[in-house]
Amino acid sequence: MSALEIMGLWVGYNKGGSVVKDVGIRIDEGEIVGVIGPNGAGKTTLLKTICGVLHPSAGTVRIWNEDVHDEPSFRRTARGVAMVPEGARVFVDLTVQENLLMGAYRRTDKTEISEDLEVVFSLFPQLRDRTEARAGGLSGGQRQMLAIGRGLMSRAPLVMLDEPSLGLAPLLVDEVFRTLLAIRDLGTTLLLVEQNAVKAFEVADRVYVLAEGAVVMDGKAQDLARDPYIVDSYFGL
After folding, report:
1. pLDDT (tens digit, 9 = 90+) per residue, 56-66?
2. Structure pTM?
3. In this predicted structure, what is the pLDDT of residue 171?
4. DSSP character string of 63-95
5. Rounded to a whole number, what is the distance in angstroms from the first to the last CA of the chain?
6. Fewest beta carbons less than 10 Å away: which of 62, 143, 169, 205?
7. Residue 35's closest CA among 213, 191, 159?
8. What's the CA gap between 68 and 74, in Å, rounded?
9. Does any domain span residue 120?
10. Alpha carbons 212 and 19: distance in angstroms, whole number
């Protein structure tokens, strides 16, 4: 089943012209799909459009086979889409546990919420030891873990992550990406926007390459990883 399907998407800001140009993307249930590209390629704009924060001038966005073109953000969230924005954004004045519970604000199933807290703590053991600590006192890596955990607490079947490796030390990047595989194995479909192409290719099933707002390449990660353009442009080899 298709979790997300985008066809012929054009998106711009005011009178600045189109940032996303005729983009088409498909994500099937249970996949990790990566979107890579340089700064300014339109990656974050794409995510904002999927969330309903931005509205396309043309094209179609379908979530779980339903056209959501005219739906506001909160309705798309209700359909089972969660967003983990770039920059490890958390509520710095709230505790770790309060941040996680903010991810479950639409839910009323207290028993299942408690169960999901345990899932998050099993994925990110560092957070279990700091449940009552204010998020503002966490390290950058812990904040990123918390931001991902908060997204998971929505129990959304489709989670989108914007640059989860941004600003993290290499060892923490490895830990975060190992966790993404574990999250996928729990049954969550992931759309991963990432500048660290090497890590994206390690975990993604398929990859789309954006340049100047358009998809210039796409395919299975293992196939694209051998393409000379990808090797030269993104792997630094």
Report:
1. 999 999 999 99
2. 0.90
3. 87
4. ETTEE-TT--HHHHHHTTEEEE-TT----TTSB
5. 37
6. 169
7. 191
8. 11
9. no
10. 7
Separation between Cα atoms, residue 122 and residue 109, nearest integer Å: 20
Of the candidates 147, 136, 207, 209, which has an alpha carbon nearest to the alpha carbon of residue 176?
Answer: 147
Helix (H) / strand (E) element for 11: namely strand 2-12
Q: pLDDT band at 14, cuts 50/70/90?
A: confident
Q: What angle do CA 176, 168, 48 make, to 5 degrees?
A: 75
Per-residue pLDDT band for 18 (boundaries 50, 70, 90) equals confident
User: For residue 44, is it within any domain?
Assistant: yes
Token couple for 201 = 């290719």
Sign of torsion over alpha carbons 31, 219, 176, 37: negative
Q: Which domain covers residue 17, as residue numbers?
A: 1-80+160-169+191-237
Locus of tokens 């210039």: 216
Q: What is the mean pLDDT of the chain?
A: 92
Distance separating alpha carbons of residues 130 and 128, to the nearest angstrom: 5
209 DSSP β-pair partners:
36, 217
Residue that the structure tokens 């959501």 belong to: 68
